[in-house]
Design brief:
Layout lengths: L1 H7 L6 H12 L2 H13 L3 H29 L3 H8 L6 H33 L9 H9 L3 H19 L3 H27 L5 H8 L8 H15 L5 H6 L8 H30 L5 H4 L5 H11 L4 H34 L4 H21 L8 E2 L2 E2 H29 L1 H8 L9 H28 L3
Antiparallel strand pairs: 1-2
Helix pairs in contact: 2-9, 2-13, 2-16, 3-11, 3-13, 4-5, 4-11, 4-13, 4-18, 4-20, 5-6, 6-8, 6-16, 6-17, 6-18, 7-15, 8-16, 8-17, 9-13, 9-16, 10-13, 11-18, 11-20, 13-15, 15-16, 16-17, 17-18, 18-19, 18-20
Bound molecules: phenylalanine.
Length: 458
């Protein structure tokens, strides 16, 4: 019976495999596409500092909480709460996570699809002949069928990987490709900061201007931290349930957070200085960059570097891979839930999850074309999903997760789990628990409530 269970429940093969999969989930479009975008929309340097503060103060504790919930319960995000808090409404946190997975994957697959288009444009040489990158992006993204085709391909590949029973393939895959992506980003960032006029951008990023900060900025920094670390919706509860019992969860969480944050900072060094270099004299705020930011700025950087067309092919390929290692982790949340709670086969669960998410995804993709004027709270479907998932759903999810660990699971169970039943000793364990029980919930709560009352929900 136990053997049978082990066969059903996949687990990661090695410690490095855990890092590769969790960092694969964390590192993605959130770092390279979303981070430079929200940083430029929210004042630059001050935003960056807030962001780093949130990663340390809230990100790592929430990540650790999720891993420990999943590993203890050995179940999907929904089932974990049901098992650890039977007969209580805590399972609703799991439900929220499943809904959030829908919201995220719907718009994420739109952007992941764009990276495939740019990969195609790079490989056919089209990209190096474009004069007006903004127009190029607008022309493509406002079409109907082409962006939908790429989105469909992303959902298909994601489903195939998830269906295959996860990690054996992807673990190996990410171990080689993620380091390659990091090296490439270093390269492009170097080219970007050495462009003429780029130093203004570096200053913008590292010299904080606190006058640009409002409650909403703070909420956006927190939301971005949650989004980028893949916390607040059960991705890491699900992955945690596949982690072996001897893994040092605090160390793993810290390593994943450091990797993710380094890549986000490098990505903004790749994008922001280039904005200043290519549009000298204008300040970033007045440019009010849109979702196409990365697709408009980076091709210009590639055009201006030797061997740029080769690098652009490699870059957009790796960016697609980085996106895929994240999309699979989101889809897996829903699939593990359907499979374990509704007792569906993995194939059936994957099919149902992917098809239903794609329906919402179509609306997100068409937000740049035929559905551009369809708005809710003055936002297109895409913008609404993007804003609400990170700033409302993940933030709220993260709050509930720390409250669960701090106040329901309790100190002894939590310390027992992260110390591997007392086998690991560290002075940090109690400190992290203190943060989880008191500091993180109060901080998230104040930010959420203040933003809500001062600025309205969106
Ligand atoms: N962290 C991923 C990224 O930055 C996105 C993601 C969010 C993945 C939430 C899983 C869960 O690209």
């Amino acid at each position: 019976m136990i053997e049978n269970n082990n066969q059903i429940r996949d687990s990661f093969g090695s410690k490095f495999g855990v890092i590769a999969a969790a960092a694969g989930s964390a590192v993605g479009l959130g770092n390279i596409w979303r981070f430079p975008l929200v940083t430029t929309q929210n004042g630059g340097g001050a935003f960056l500092l807030l962001y780093i503060g949130f990663v340390i103060l809230i990100g790592i504790p929430v990540m650790l909480s999720e891993f420990s919930i999943g590993r203890r319960a050995q179940l999907n995000a929904f089932g974990s709460f049901k098992k650890l808090a039977p007969g209580t409404p805590w399972f609703l946190v799991g439900s929220l996570g499943i809904i959030t997975a829908f919201a995220i994957l719907a718009f994420y697959s739109t952007v992941a699809g764009w990276t495939l288009e740019y990969f195609a444009q790079a490989i056919t040489g089209k990209l190096s002949h474009v004069n007006d990158m903004q127009k190029n992006f607008a022309d493509f993204s406002s079409q109907t069928y082409r962006p939908l085709m790429w989105q469909f391909i992303i959902m298909l590949v994601t489903s195939v990987v998830v269906f295959a029973g996860i990690k054996k393939g992807i673990e190996k895959f990410t171990k080689i490709l993620m380091p390659l992506l990091a090296v490439l980003i270093l390269f492009v960032a170097f080219r970007s900061v050495t462009l003429e006029g780029a130093m203004e951008g570096v200053k913008y990023l590292f010299v904080p201007d606190w006058s640009a900060v409002s409650f909403k900025t703070v909420l956006m920094a927190l939301g971005q931290a949650a989004f980028s670390l893949s916390i607040g919706m059960g991705t890491l509860i699900t992955y945690g349930s596949y982690i072996q019992k001897d893994n040092h969860l605090l160390r793993t969480s810290t390593q994943v957070a450091i990797t993710d944050t380094s890549i986000a900072i490098l990505a903004s060094l790749m994008v922001i200085p280039a904005i200043f270099a290519f549009s000298p004299g204008s300040d970033v705020a007045s440019l009010s960059p849109g979702p196409g930011l990365v697709f408009e700025v980076l091709p210009n950087v590639f055009k201006s570097m030797p061997g740029g067309s080769f690098f652009s092919v490699l870059f957009f390929f790796l960016l697609s891979v980085a996106a895929l290692t994240s999309t699979i982790s989101v889809l897996e949340v829903v699939v593990a839930y359907l499979k374990e709670e509704l007792r569906l086969s993995r194939g059936m669960a994957t099919l149902i999850a992917a098809v239903s998410i794609s329906v919402l995804g179509v609306l997100a993709t068409l937000s740049f074309g035929v559905m551009r004027d369809f708005t809710i709270f003055e936002m297109t479907v895409f913008d609404l999903l993007n804003y609400a998932s990170a700033n409302i759903m993940l933030t709220f999810g993260a709050l509930l997760i720390v409250v669960f660990v701090g106040w329901r699971m309790g100190k002894s169970d939590f310390i027992n789990e992260i110390s591997n039943q007392g086998n690991l000793k560290s002075n940090l364990f109690k400190g992290v628990y203190f943060i989880i029980r008191y500091i993180a919930p109060v901080a998230i709560g104040i930010i959420a409530i203040a933003t809500f009352f001062i600025q309205g929900i969106v």
